[in-house]
Amino acid sequence: MFEKILVANRGEIAVRIIRACKELNVRTVAVYSEIDANSMHVQLADEAICIGKAASSESYLRIDRIISAAEIADVDAIHPGYGFLSENAHFADVCENCNIRFIGPSSRAMNLLEDKAVSRALAKKAGVPIPPGSEGIVENEQIALATAKKIGYPVMIKAVAGGGGRGMRVAHNDISLVKGFHTARTEAEKAFGNSGVYIEKFIENPHHIEFQILGDNRGNIIHLGERDCSIQRRNQKVVEESPSPLLEHKFKDLRKKMGKAAVRIAELAHYTNAGTVEFIVDDKGNFYFLEVNKRIQVEHPITEEVTGIDLVKQQIMIAMGEPLRISQNDVQFKGHAIECRINAEDPFNDFRPSPGRIEMYYAPGGRGVRVDSHAYAGYTIPPTYDSMIGKLITYGKDRRDAMDKMSRALGEYMITGIKTTIPFEQAILQDPNFRRGVYSTNFIEQLLGGARRELIEEKA
């Protein structure tokens, strides 16, 4: 067993990793920026080292400072969490060269899957359907226009190194394509240091469904079922659930096909540790590969709830060189789980970020309710980082049970001093279409339209 692990992240995911380490009797080292000195992960870790100023570029993205902290603290391994350096192959390489175990996939696998255009080629080789699109990076607007003409509008412009909705634009004609092409490139360069984009056919009214995978260092790879992440705003996930209502009730045969497809892609990439293979599914039951997320996902708790498998502990054991002690036949799915991301945003003012001091904080509880958060009364949410302050997860014997618990828990969740997305998520849980499991990625756009928005604001 590792004796000490450095957590190269902040917020709720850092707290989540520290908790898993404590249960494994592994000591932890937190790194933090100056503005995060009073953050929960700093207080819970066995040791804490300041690595720079508030800006991510001066702290959580500084490989040299993180490695220095790891060497000073004499750690065995580094867990990157999600975001920041979690999918940075160079960081994984540096860790390996410094004899520090990186808790994630190998740098080789990350390099292979880093470029989304390359990932598409890998999926094609695996015999997994991909949306029609460019063969690789689109270098200029003339090629972009020619590609769009070939595959037909609407099209999606996507950053090859993207994530979280950044560097993505939908185009319905030549004018919006040219504008979106340059905007996506600029946004991608600022967010990822890579301006490369590619183009693919935009599937209208799609369902965003992803499969959790685990792979050890001996070639064993399994999937842990799917998560439906179709409730999104500007390509940012808001509510996730497992299993997917679409696969559960409309296309039951897809679960096995998509699960096998996810494993095939991972096998070709020689993937190790935890990862997620993302797909889109159209209304006719056709599915297409999107990308591989080479890290633990924000929404991993719902998979843990329906499988009973602790994914972060599995990550640590795999990084130690332990073989998977779970076969595909061992994975059993039971019940239903839903996750709501609690963000410090004003949902009725275009989701404007709402940093500031939390005056009162009361987290819901009771059977089947889980809260993953780093927030507490008196904590000041900095304006520097992502606005997510926690995740509310409910588990029930079936979907209705999980929804009823989520509605109750959202009503109990009390946070004052800042605006949060809680009232908006309460509206989602009460929406008739959501209750019936009939939704796609344009659900929120429709929910915020016209009279329905006025009704939601009135109730809030």
How would you sum up this structure, described in words?
This protein has 17 helices and 22 strands. The chain is α+β, with helices and mostly antiparallel strands and 460 residues long. It has three domains: 4-103, Rossmann fold, CATH 3.40.50; 132-201, Dna Ligase, domain 1, CATH 3.30.1490; 207-459, D-amino Acid Aminotransferase, Chain A, domain 1 (2-Layer Sandwich). Helix 4 (89-97) packs antiparallel against helix 5, helix 7 (141-151) crosses helix 8 (174-192) and helix 13 (399-412) runs antiparallel to helix 14. The protein is globular, with a radius of gyration of 21 Å. The N and C termini lie far apart (49 Å). The mean pLDDT is 94.
Beta-strand level of the residues, as a percent range? 25-35%
Total helical elements: 17
Structural category is alpha+beta
* CA-CA gap between termini: 49 Å
